Amino acid sequence: MLTLRHLAIDTVRENVAFLNRRCTRYHVEDFLGLGRVEVRNDGRSLLAVLNIVDDPAIVAPDEIGLSDPAFGQLGLAEGSAVHLVPPTPPESFELVRAKVGGAALTDDQLAAIIRDVTDQRYSKIEIAAFLIACASFMTTAEVLGLTRAMIAAGTRLQWEGLNGVSGGTIADKHCIGGIPGNRTSMIVVPIVAAHGLPIPKTSSRAITSPAGTADTMEVLANVDVPVERMQALVREAKGCLVWGGHVRLSPADDILISVERPLAIDTREQLVASILSKKVAAGSTHLLIDIPVGPSAKIRTASEAVRLRKLFEHVGDRLGLTLEVAITDGSQPVGRGIGPVLEARDVMAVLRNAPAGPADLKERALLLAGRILEFDPAVRGGSGNRRARDLLESGAALAAMEHIIAMQGPPPAVAALGSLVAEVASPADGVVSSLDCYRLARIARLAGAPTDKGAGIDLLRKVGERVRRGEPLYRIHASTNADFTFAQAFAAENSGVAVA
Amino acid sequence: MLTLRHLAIDTVRENVAFLNRRCTRYHVEDFLGLGRVEVRNDGRSLLAVLNIVDDPAIVAPDEIGLSDPAFGQLGLAEGSAVHLVPPTPPESFELVRAKVGGAALTDDQLAAIIRDVTDQRYSKIEIAAFLIACASFMTTAEVLGLTRAMIAAGTRLQWEGLNGVSGGTIADKHCIGGIPGNRTSMIVVPIVAAHGLPIPKTSSRAITSPAGTADTMEVLANVDVPVERMQALVREAKGCLVWGGHVRLSPADDILISVERPLAIDTREQLVASILSKKVAAGSTHLLIDIPVGPSAKIRTASEAVRLRKLFEHVGDRLGLTLEVAITDGSQPVGRGIGPVLEARDVMAVLRNAPAGPADLKERALLLAGRILEFDPAVRGGSGNRRARDLLESGAALAAMEHIIAMQGPPPAVAALGSLVAEVASPADGVVSSLDCYRLARIARLAGAPTDKGAGIDLLRKVGERVRRGEPLYRIHASTNADFTFAQAFAAENSGVAVA
């Protein structure tokens, strides 16, 4: 028996146990070779990766330390006596081994794997094994099975009693991402809500990009909204733009992504399962997927986009979703701003019908909103875009946005544009021939976005526009000298803008 | 800048950095999403998985803690100022992604991956990705390339000046394992050494089995021998039986195995690359591989064994090894004892030509030794077995073993047979029809083997032997009450012996 100790170490979605090397109750080497231990005390059990500690101040020889998530999951009080036993790997991992060997898994088998993943019985290397086996080879039936399993493993939002224009329709949109400044959701949601179609939009914060919709919306309003409040809000305002972190939708997806992201292995199959599991769990019935295509976007060719579209349609249909896919231009950033404050400025300019508002952001939002509006049986086929334009240009969308902002409450802090400003000049007379989405995003991040909401890039020239040598291509905004210097140095190396 | 702190936590072949959640110099969330950080200070750099700490006693907000292996690898003094930068994943991981996508990798590409693995630039999930991609699909050329890359990434033992019977021949043997009691090495090595053929045998300790050759040899002699001493020893005694842990041969293999083992994903390709890289690095020129086949062995069918044999031959040939494969009976344990002391007893009984010595262990050792002796051009084809028997029955092998034991020195502790003894009785009159290798190994481990050298199982009946109801099938030996009770309970559930 060892005494349980809670270590204030967050091992980020993996259970880790810390054992003193001079532990006298157990043979440390036995467990070490296996890489894991099972921690037990009457009826409760936890599987954890093993780390060895030499410092008795962290863990004494008669103690076992558990990392923060592991301690919480075991659910015993600090000081409890616990046994260690050799780990029994999750039974479902046998199925992963079969998959590695080339087997296609059934719905039940995928469900067993996903249940164990959700219960954190899988270590990160076991999750990686599952992901790579799926990335190597996955049938369409498996994509569907995986999606269903992920939906079943979490909670599912209910939207009964919503008074929309169309009984029971819950609209949603999702962009697969990769294009800086592509903040259409913040225009589409108020347009669709103004029409009366419920559209409860949850968004993520940026992980590797300079701004997610949640980051940008947070310039204007509070986005940290509990589920019940979000439901009340949609009942009242028809739409919302909140951070998705409070909703335990498809928790298995969050765990899989925590391993997928550092590996940067992104397959069509996993993308579809991830997005559709979240959307079905969120209670959406009608979904528009936006796939931008461009040389520096996630999807680089039209044929890739079509293959992805078909997989979305196939799986979406079988899940009972009404699903549409829009393949859009992803050849350059959308709008002028890259970074939360700058993007919020662009969004509000479009909603206010300001003459200086970026036309590309507006037209793209209208295109997407129009297709969503056509989910409403009362909207005549082909007239969705017109209806969207009316709602935007009449100010109805702005009013809806102001209603949503008022309902969500004020932002946690006032965000101002970064006061350190540098202009990046054109090296030649000519026409802008390309903007590198990846490079510009990187510069905006170095400038401090999204953590520093006022940091980013303000594009002064887009593709096809004329520029003279020495004229500015874009401005870098930052708030701290360190970030400012980093971003400028990186831009000096390669601005991300080609002038020909 | 943060202050570097050395944490006495062994994260077992993975670099881990510990950052305080309230770190003010950096945005913790930025790194958290990426899962890793790069720690830098003029010219030195280390890639580490990120854990978050809430307890300032472990890591203060202005500090960064590194786990024991990571701290050693960075090589800076405690208290040094270091930067954190977003991680640059190892460039070679792009090749792993290509492999996941179905590409076959070239020798150079595999070498780049293995170099980064050896330098611990890969996280465990990245290693898992590489292993699973290889397990899904690997060409024979890739197995060869991987083996070569693993050899090149470590040191290679030199055996110049060895005065063997055959100039330059360094013999070796390896059993792929899985059969309890199969301690042929401890008989084969003294026979071959007695013949005058150098056979420097390094062995592992048991990880999941009740005894490895190193554990059993340690009952008789010291096995913890540094490389230089081992070389001197072989020069003098022609053979040795030491633990391989001191020799940094194919360090990439050790790292890969630390991820492979918990995943229990064991492909032919990885097995061949792992074994042959170690053997070539050990300087072996002539190698005998023993593949036991049986229903509870690692290899279950003759056709599987043949496929494995061909892969060994193919890769071995191209590495310039003289390689032979023996496919042997793996249907039941070899000898009578399972556990270090009991197995050492069997080995010494065979070497002493004791009438009670297990005949199956003796005949198997002679078969293997005979094939190795035929590596000597002076030994007539087909007469190796006869020569081996002469060396054993004349006492020459025993003398060689005594010489090796004297050279290696006395064991670290005297190991005695466990004094707690329980007999497991036959449930019926009949003939023993099968012994379950896996089950019996498990019981011996529960009894305390290999950590408790005197624990284990002493088989009183083997397959084909008659037994009457109530007569003992085997004895369980243990030293502590807890182990004794566990092993007995597990044996009572299912003894692992079928009587028909």
UniProtKB/TrEMBL annotation, chains A, B:
Describe the family membership recorded for this protein in Swiss-Prot or TrEMBL.
Answer: Belongs to the thymidine/pyrimidine-nucleoside phosphorylase family. Type 2 subfamily.
Q: Which residue range or ranges hold the Pyrimidine nucleoside phosphorylase C-terminal domain? A: 431-498
Q: What InterPro entries does the database record attribute to this sequence? A: Glycosyl_Trfase_fam3, Glycosyl_Trfase_fam3_N_dom, Glycosyl_Trfase_fam3_N_dom_sf, Nuc_phospho_transferase, PYNP-like_C_sf, PYNP_C, Pyrmidine_PPase_CS, Thym_Pase_Put
Q: Which UniProt keywords apply?
A: Glycosyltransferase, Transferase
Q: Which Gene3D superfamilies match?
A: 1.20.970.50, Nucleoside phosphorylase/phosphoribosyltransferase catalytic domain, Pyrimidine nucleoside phosphorylase-like, C-terminal domain
Q: Which NCBIfam families match?
A: ARCH_P_rylase (TIGR02645), PRK04350.1 (NF003338)
Q: Which reaction does it catalyse?
A: thymidine + phosphate = 2-deoxy-alpha-D-ribose 1-phosphate + thymine
By what name is this protein known?
Putative thymidine phosphorylase
Q: Which Pfam families match?
A: Glycos_trans_3N, Glycos_transf_3, PYNP_C
* EC numbers, comma separated: 2.4.2.4
* Gene Ontology molecular function: any one: thymidine phosphorylase activity
Task: Respond yes or no to whether keyword Nucleotidyltransferase is given for this record.
Answer: no
Biological process according to GO: pyrimidine nucleobase metabolic process; pyrimidine nucleoside metabolic process
